[in-house]
Design goal:
Strand order of the largest sheet: 1-2-9-4-7-10
Mean pLDDT: 89
Largest sheet: 6 strands, antiparallel
Order of helices and strands: EEEEEEEEEHEHHHHHHHH
Number of strands: 10
CATH class of the largest domain: Mainly Beta
Helix content: 25-40%
Strand content: 15-25%
CATH architecture of the largest domain: Sandwich
Number of helices: 9
CATH topology of the largest domain: Jelly Rolls
Distance between the termini: 37 Å
Radius of gyration: 18 Å
Number of domains: 2
């Protein structure tokens, strides 16, 4: 990373682990104005900007300012963002099915959306320049939310999520059982099991690509479970909107930090 740029991760306490995968913080005092592509990673996030917020490209290509506090639901396509000034942020990364009770509505309503949470997080003021303290302010606040919210998990959905993370074949079900689980999965996760499997496989490409013995993107794709280069290329277009070579050449700062640090295998905590 450049001088002054930092990325930091903190594990949640035991009480929050069934719902929260981690907290991450990021700061870049002197960011470029480079457009950065962010791919789906299978986890919804609650993000609080302590510095200047990013601009995000809308479907018409116009860049619009993101709110200072936002909930990012499941993504099925890439987003393009660019900084507007000094960047400092802290984010709660939920497990794929972990945010439903906190959000208080179906995760399907947040898919491919960034929901404004400024009012809900208005009382939070994590200290600037202290990533550990920032993470613990967010975790302490969320623990208060959990205690008053009577959060639960759906065991059937969690079992499906765990199987997808472990790359296990899903059990055979009749049509009625498949439809019932799909409805529950869409409510708790926001996307279908097949889509989440594709996102998880694509995320694994980055972990393989950054291993010491990596021999290139094709080798990383094969290690992640792709059959061949054309299949991998289709998912780069689908989830990043570019080729692997273009992404490697263009990405800096937050996009690079997320890819190098957080695209790692690892499923949720068991119920």
């Amino acid at each position: 990373m450049d001088t002054g740029e930092r990325y930091h991760e903190v594990d949640p306490p035991e009480a929050l682990r069934p719902w929260v995968r981690m907290v991450w913080t990021y700061a870049c005092p002197r960011p470029s104005r480079t457009i950065q592509r962010i791919a789906p990673d299978g986890c919804p996030e609650l993000i609080l900007d302590l510095g200047d917020p990013y601009e995000e490209a809308d479907t018409d290509g116009t860049f619009r300012l993101q709110p200072h506090a936002l909930f990012a639901g499941q993504m099925t396509r890439p987003i393009a963002i660019r900084p507007t000034g000094p960047v400092e942020m802290v984010a709660l990364r939920f497990h794929p099915d972990g945010a439903r009770d906190w959000l208080g509505q179906s995760l399907r309503t947040a898919t491919d959306q960034r929901l404004d949470m400024t009012a809900r997080l208005g009382g939070l003021s994590p200290p600037s320049g202290d990533p550990e303290a920032q993470a613990h302010v967010m975790l302490d606040w969320l623990e208060g939310e959990r205690r008053t919210g009577a959060w639960t998990l759906d065991p059937r959905v969690r079992a499906e999520v765990e199987a997808l993370h472990a790359d296990q074949p899903l059990p055979a079900r009749d049509a009625a059982a498949r439809r019932a689980l799909q409805r529950r999965f869409l409510d708790r996760v926001g996307i279908a099991p097949r889509t989440l499997r594709s996102v998880i496989r694509f995320r694994r490409v980055f972990d393989h690509a950054m291993a010491e013995d990596a021999e290139g993107w094709l080798d990383a794709g094969l290690g992640a479970g792709y059959f061949d280069q054309p299949q991998l290329a289709r998912d780069f277009r689908r989830f990043l909107g570019c080729t692997a070579t273009e992404w490697a050449r263009e990405q800096v700062e937050l996009a690079r930090a997320i890819a190098s640090q957080t695209y790692k295998p690892g499923g949720p905590e068991p119920v």
